[in-house]
Amino acid sequence: MDNKKLQIEQLESRIKLFSPTRQLPNPPTGWVKAIRLALGMSLQQLANKLGMTKQSVQEIETREKEGAITLKSLRETARALDMELVYGFVPKEGTLEKHIESKARSLAEKIVSRTSNTMKLEDQQNTNERIKKAIEERTLIIKQELPKTIWD
């Protein structure tokens, strides 16, 4: 098994664990504030644990709600709450394999379409079935080789 395929398989097993969380909405107040309130912790208490002012904690809560917070700040806040920050990426298509398949097919369609148009200009037009087959074959090749151009 080649190195790239092994890498993808290992990541895929981790990503599967995150997939169900895609459907969970974030609390409207943001996680920091929601957890702090659920624990019955005041702004001042969290501020003391973080070694900052309560205004700074309010800023953290606001930045997190707005999506403008750093991972470092979230990680430190999680630690202060005796929690752990967990994050990851989940492909929109559900799996890395499907993501790669989608990108490979898109590139294959562009390549085959270009070739097909050139042949049409030379009065050597292919049938739709032959074009479909060429796209399938090119998709397989692209998935195996995984050239960097797939992400352009």
UniProtKB/TrEMBL annotation:
PROSITE patterns under this entry?
HTH_CROC1
Note the Gene3D superfamilies from the entry.
Answer: lambda repressor-like DNA-binding domains (1.10.260.40)
InterPro entries assigned to the protein according to its UniProt record, in alphabetical order: Cro/C1-type_HTH (IPR001387), Lambda_DNA-bd_dom_sf (IPR010982), Mobile_mystery_prot_A (IPR013435)
- One of its Pfam families is HTH_3
Q: Which organism is it from?
A: Algoriphagus aquimarinus
Give the domain of life.
Bacteria
**Recorded GO terms, molecular function?**
DNA binding
Upper classification of the organism: Bacteria, Pseudomonadati, Bacteroidota, Cytophagia, Cytophagales
HTH cro/C1-type domain: which residues? 32-89
Q: What is this protein called?
A: Mobile mystery protein A
